[in-house]
Amino acid sequence: MKRFNLYQTVGCLFALLVLFSCEQVDLDKGVTERVGLLNFAVSIPGQSIEYPATKPGPYANDDTIVIRVPSTDENPLDLKRLKTFASLGHNSTIEPALGQITDFSAPIAVTVKDGDGAVTRHVVKVVPALPKTVFSKVWFKSSEALGIKRTNISGIAVVGEHLLVADFNGGNTGMDNGLRVLNKNTGELVKSIAPPTTYCMQVVADNADHFIVNRYNIYSAGFMVYYYENVDAAPKLILNYPASAGCPVNLGRKVSVIGNLKSGKAYVYATTNGTNTVYYWEFRDGVAVSTEPTVLRYASASPWTYAHIQRKSLDASSDHYLTYCNYNASDPNLLEGSRFVSFTPDMEETMMAKQNHYYKILGFNAFRVGGEEFTALLTQGYYAWDATHIKVFETNDPSKFGQQPGSAGYSDFMLFQSEAYGGTNYNRYGDLVADVRGDEVYLYATMATNAATNSGVMVYKMKYNKP
Q1: Which PROSITE patterns would you find in this protein's record (predicted)?
Q2: Which residues are registered as beta bridge partners of 392?
Q3: In principle, which of 107, 183, 359, 368 could form an S-S bond with 382, CB 3.0–4.6 Å?
Q4: Who contacts 98 (Cβ-Cβ below 8 Å, separation ≥6)?
C-alpha cells in the first residue's frame, strides 16, 4: 500500500509539472493568470474610500479608464490632488508610481509592463460627479457638554424636535436619573424625565413620535415596557413579562419598535445575552395581543454575547435584519465577533461580509429615503479601547452583502465611514438612530465610554440626491 501511494504521488507531481510548463494557472480560481493592469482607483487624501473605475479590468492596450468621484458645490472635488491605487498582474510594474498625489485636471497616461515584458498603455480620466449621497459631520458633544451624568449611555431616540438620551442610574429613581430631553439640532437641554421604574435600559421611538422606556430583567423583576405619548406625558405600563412567566435573565438589553404604539399595528422586540433567541410582541391600538412573547430562534448562531434586531415592515411575512456578537476574550485571529444578516420568514439568510465592519457592531438602523434603503452601523474594533466609527451602506439588494473592500462597485455599496472616536467601552453599549427629514437624514449615535470627556453623542447628515 505504501508503495502504491508513492507511485501515485510521483504521477501527480509529474502531471502538475506538465500543466505548469504549458501555462500559468490561478489555482484559487481555476483560470489562467491575469496579467497587466487589472483595476485602477483613486481616493481623496484623508479619506478611506477608494473610487474604482466605472468598468472593471483587466484592461487592454489603449483602453481609456473612467473614474467618477463625488463632487458637490459645498465640497468641490480637487482634481489636482488625488491618490492613485491599482491592481497589477504578477511581476507587473506601472508608471507613474502608485500611492502618490496625482493631478487629474487632465487625463493622465499610464504605462504597464507585465512579467513577460509586454507593455500596454492606458489613459485614466477622473470625472467629478454629483453623488447619490453626501455626508457631513454636524457635531459631536461630550456627555460633559450635554449634562449627561452616566457616561455609559445605553440608548437614544429622536421624537419630534427632541433627542432623548438615556441617563439611567441602576436602582435609583428621580428626575436626575432618567432621560435627558435635548434639542435635536443643538443638543441643548430642554428638560429631564424621571425613569418610570428602576433598572431601565433603553429609550426607543415608534414610527409616530411616541416612545417607550424599558426595564430589563435584572434581579428577577421581569421585562417591562412603559409608553409615552410625548415628552410631557406620564408613562403607561403596556407590557409586563415577569420572570415567573419564563422571562430570561437580562431580557431588554436591546429593544426595537416598528409601527404606531397608539393606533394600528406595532411590534416590540427584545434580546438578551447567552441565547440565540429573540422575543417579540404584537400590539394593536396600544394593547399587546398577548403578554406571552413570540420566540424566534436564530439557529445559525451560537448563544451570543448580545444582539439587536430590526423588523423590516409590518407585513406578517416581513424579513428581518439581525446583528449578533460572539465576543471571545481569546480571539487573536478575530474569527468571531459580530455578524450582520438579513433573513426571511423561512430563514433564508444573507450575511454581510465581516470585512465590512469591525469586530463589534454596537448598534444599527436601517432606514428609507427616496424609495431606497440604507443601513447605518455603529462599529468598534476588538478591544474596549479601540476606535468606534459609523459606517453607512446601501442595502436595497442583500445579494450585495458579500462585497468586500476593493471589489468592483464597492463605493456604491459602502457609502461612508466617519472619523474615529476614542474611549473605553467595556459594556459594549452603543445605539444609533436615523432621523429622516425629506431628502436629508440625520444620524445620531452614542459614544458609551467611562469618561465624560469622550463619551457623548455624534451627529452626521446624509444628503440624498435622487438619481
Answers
A1: PROKAR_LIPOPROTEIN (PS51257)
A2: 376, 416
A3: 359
A4: 84, 85, 86
Q: Is the dihedral of CA 352, 356, 362, 365 positive or negative?
A: negative
Q: Specify whether the backbone of 405 is left (phi greater than 0), alpha (psi in -120 to 50) or beta.
A: beta
Whether the per-residue pLDDT at 21 is higher than 80: the answer is no
| Global pTM value | 0.78
Give 127's pLDDT tier (boundaries 50, 70, 90). Answer: very high
Q: How do the domains of the chain map onto residue ranges?
A: 31-129, 133-464
Topology adopted by domain 31-129: Immunoglobulin-like (2.60.40)
CATH architecture of 133-464: 6 Propeller (2.120)
Cα–Cα distance measured from residue 23 to residue 192, given in angstroms and rounded to the nearest whole number: 73
H or E element in which residue 458 lies:
strand 456-464
Among candidate residues 25, 3, 7, the one with its CA nearest the CA of residue 16: 25
Q: Which residues contact 433 (CB under 8 A, 6 or more apart)?
A: 156, 157, 158, 205, 365, 443, 444, 445
In the chain, the largest separation of any two C-alpha atoms, in whole Å, equals 87
| pLDDT tens figures, 57-113 | 999 999 999 999 988 877 899 999 999 999 999 999 999 999 899 999 999 999 999
Cα 265 to Cα 79, 160, 213, 314, 341, distances in angstroms: 52, 20, 19, 7, 25
Residue 76: cis peptide before it, omega within 30 degrees of 0: no
CB within 8 Å of 82: residues ≥ 6 apart: 42, 43, 44, 45, 69, 101, 102, 104, 126
